[in-house]
C-alpha cells in the first residue's frame, strides 16, 4: 500500500518495525527501560548530554559563563548516547522523566536540583549567575520572546523537516514540501529580524542567540541535514552574518564540541571534566 492509499485505523497500534533511522529507540511509552545510575563528577553542575543542537545550547552557555569569569559554573559533561538508549536508564529518567537530552543536576546547594528542557536550563543558568539575559524589562522580554520562539520552532525543523528529509525510511513529497516551506519561513523570519539588529534580541548577546545558533546557524552554514543547497541557504545573508559572528566566539567553539562524536578529530570530545580537556584534543589541521 502506498501513502496515497493509507487510511488510519480506528485505534492506532505501535509497529516497532516502521523503519526510519531512529525507529529502534522510539516507543509510545515513557519511563525507564533498564536500571543504571548516572555518574557524578566533582563540579557544581553535572550535565548529561550529547552534542545535538539542543545539547550544544547548554555547553555553549556553560563555556560562556566560564569565559565571563564565573568559576562557579564549572561542570562535568557526561555523554548520553541516544542511539544506544542511554536516555532510558533509571538514572537519566530520574533527572529527566521525558528521556530527552540535555539534562542537568545543580549540586551547588544543600540539595541537588534537577533541571531539564534545554531552554529552561539556559534560563536557569542565566538567572542563577545574572548573565546573558538583559536586566532592563523591554530588552529582557525581547530576548525571552526569541528563546520561547526557538523552543516552539525547532521541532518543525528537527522533527519535521530534518526527519522527513534525512531520516525517514523513504522520501515523501507532501511532508518534505510542508516542512521545507515552514523551515524557509523561519529562516526568512530570522533573516529579517537580523537585518535590523546585531543579535537576535537586539544589540546584546543573550541566551536567545545561544539557543538559536546551534539549530539555525548550522542550517545556514549548510551543515544541518546536508540540506544547504536544497534550502538555498545562501539567500539568507543577515542570518549568515550573525551565524559567522557567533561561530567566532571562543566559548562557542569549545561548547559546540563537548559530548560530540562526529566530525573532525579535533572537534570530538566525548566528555568534559576540566578546562584542560580541550588541550588534549588533536590540533586542527
Summary of the model, kept short:
The chain has helices spanning 53-67, 90-95, 118-129, 137-167, 173-194, 207-220, 228-231, 237-247, 250-255, and strands at 45-49, 75-79, 103-106, 113-116. It is of the alpha+beta class and 285 residues long. It has 2 domains: 12-132 and 259-284, Glutaredoxin, CATH 3.40.30.10; 137-248, Glutathione S-transferase Yfyf (Class Pi), Chain A, domain 2 (Up-down Bundle), CATH 1.20.1050.
- Which fold name fills CATH's third level, the topology of the largest domain? Glutaredoxin
Widest sheet: strand order?
A: 2-1-3-4
Query: Biggest sheet: strands, sense, closure?
Result: 4 strands, mixed
Summing up helix and strand content along with how strands pair, one would put the structural category as alpha+beta
Query: For the residues shown, what is the average pLDDT?
Result: 95
Query: How are helices and strands ordered from N to C?
Result: EHEHEEHHHHHHH
Quote the distance from N terminus to C terminus. 50 Å
Secondary structure tally, helices:
9
Label the CATH architecture of the largest domain: 3-Layer(aba) Sandwich
Percent range of helical residues: 40-55%
CATH class of the largest domain: Alpha Beta
Strand content: 5-15%
Q: By CATH's scheme, which homologous superfamily of the largest domain applies?
A: Glutaredoxin
Radius of gyration over C-alpha positions, nearest whole angstrom: 20 Å
Unreliably modeled segments = none
As for the number of domains, it is 2
Number of distinct beta strands: 4
Overall outline: globular
Amino acid at each position: 500500500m502506498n501513502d496515497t492509499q493509507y487510511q488510519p485505523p480506528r485505534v492506532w497500534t505501535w509497529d516497532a518495525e516502521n523503519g526510519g533511522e531512529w525507529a529502534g529507540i522510539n516507543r509510545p511509552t515513557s519511563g525507564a527501560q533498564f536500571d543504571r545510575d548516572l555518574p557524578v563528577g566533582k563540579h557544581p553542575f553535572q550535565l548529561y548530554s550529547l552534542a545535538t543542537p539542543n545539547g550544544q545550547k547548554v555547553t555553549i552557555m556553560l563555556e560562556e559563563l566560564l569565559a565571563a569569569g564565573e568559576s562557579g559554573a564549572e561542570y562535568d559533561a557526561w555523554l548520553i548516547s541516544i542511539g544506544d538508549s542511554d536516555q532510558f536508564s533509571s538514572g537519566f529518567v530520574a533527572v529527566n522523566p521525558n528521556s530527552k537530552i540535555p539534562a542537568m543536576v545543580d549540586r551547588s546547594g544543600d540539595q541537588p536540583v534537577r533541571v531539564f528542557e534545554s531552554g529552561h536550563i539556559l534560563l536557569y543558568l542565566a538567572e542563577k549567575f545574572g548573565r546573558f539575559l538583559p536586566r532592563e524589562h523591554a530588552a529582557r522580554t525581547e530576548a525571552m520572546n526569541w528563546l520561547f520562539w526557538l523552543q516552539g520552532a525547532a521541532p518543525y525543523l528537527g522533527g519535521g523537516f530534518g526527519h522527513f528529509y534525512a531520516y525517514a525510511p523513504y522520501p515523501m513529497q507532501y511532508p518534505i514540501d510542508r516542512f521545507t516551506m515552514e523551515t524557509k519561513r523561519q529562516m526568512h523570519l530570522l533573516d529579517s529580524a537580523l537585518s535590523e539588529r546585531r543579535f537576535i534580541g537586539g544589540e546584546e548577546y543573550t541566551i536567545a542567540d545561544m539557543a538559536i545558533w546551534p539549530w539555525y546557524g548550522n542550517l545556514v552554514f549548510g551543515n544541518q541535514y546536508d540540506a544547504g543547497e536544497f534550502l538555498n541557504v545562501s539567500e539568507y545573508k543577515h542570518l549568515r552574518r550573525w551565524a559567522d559572528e557567533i561561530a567566532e566566539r571562543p566559548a562557542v567553539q569549545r561548547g559546540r564540541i563537548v559530548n560530540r562524536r562526529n566530525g573532525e578529530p579535533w572537534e570530538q570530545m566525548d566528555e568534559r571534566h576540566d578546562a584542560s580537556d580541550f588541550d588534549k584534543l588533536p590540533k586542527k589541521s
